[in-house]
Amino acid sequence: MINRVKVLYKRGGILAAILMSCMVFTTQPVCAGEAEQTGEIHLKYTPVQEAQFWVYRVGDITDSWEFELTGEFKEFQMDLNALDTESMAAAAQTLASYVKADRIEADHSGRTDMNGDLYFSGLAKGVYLIDGESIIHEGVRYDPVPVLVTVPSMNEAGEWVYETEVETKYETFIPTGEKKEYRIVKYWSNDGDGSVRPKDITVEILKDGERHSVQTLSEENDWSYVWKTEDDGSVWQVVERNIPEGYTVMVEKNQTAFMISNTYREEGKEPPKTGDGTALLYTAILLFLSGLILIIAGLTIWRRKRDAKQVHKR
């Protein structure tokens, strides 16, 4: 999951100190001396040993901590800044499917050791996709869940660190050998009466990373497609091709169902961002001044009480 700054505000001197830290983090998340610093991802995966994993640098991190897809991932219509925790997981799944379909080469790869540990070092600042291979072990298929992480990341103490730890989640399936039904359903979002929608879309179905078939979804088939196949332990994925102009794409998988969502972005309106640097700077300054006023007020009251006690003693 991509980490986000969480700031807890308290009273008095603690308030001012935290607000000053907030101003540093939001306006200068990585200082000039750290610009060329590289990081490391420590991956933990315990279900099976010697599992293969791949790491892809999918995005840049700007000075104002906005995320921008980069390289071969630029062409995918997706805005990482408009995602919550749940949709971020779907974004990772979507990008992992495109990686397989387009045979995008990984920036780093490796296998876990006997303890389930795997380290990737020399990573430049950015957003990374981590994906692993599905393995059938003792009749059970283990599927690592793709994940997006950042380098650097924020630890539990609220500090930016260049060592990111990832405990990879996974799903398990037991192949039955029987016929199983799979379904693709198309959803449209934020496009009003649908007048800007295309008349159809193209979906590519992948079986174990290889193209299985290409299907067309439209109103005629209720924007859906169903197929049946033997449950032999194969991994199925889908990607949308020729994404309609003005739309973003997201693919979510739930057991045997694939939900493709296209969300329309109104022309001239930018989606929500993680934060504007200038606005955050002004906000931080105002909050800092507010904290400073609280400190001064507290000290004034304390001094008056002290002076009053001294006068009383006299």
Beta-sheet strand percentage? 35-45%
CA radius of gyration is: 25 Å
The residue ranges in which pLDDT falls below 50 over 5 or more consecutive positions are 1-33, 270-297
Q: Tell me the span between the first and last alpha carbons.
A: 64 Å
Helix content: 10-25%
The CATH class of the largest domain turns out to be Mainly Beta
Question: What is the tally of beta strands?
Answer: 20
Main pleated sheet: 5 strands, antiparallel
H and E string: HEEEHEEEEEEEEEEEEEEEEEH
Structural class: alpha+beta
Q: What name goes with the CATH superfamily of the largest domain?
A: Immunoglobulins
Multimeric organization? single chain
Question: Which outline best applies?
Answer: flat
* Count of helix runs: 3
CATH topology of the largest domain: Immunoglobulin-like
How does CATH name the architecture of the largest domain? Sandwich
Number of domains: 2
Give the integer mean of the pLDDT values.
80
Pfam families: Cna_B, GramPos_pilinD1
Protein name: CNA-B domain-containing protein
InterPro entries: Collagen-bd_Cna-like_B-typ_dom, GramPos_pilinD1_N, Ig-like_fold
Organism: Blautia hydrogenotrophica (strain DSM 10507 / JCM 14656 / S5a33)
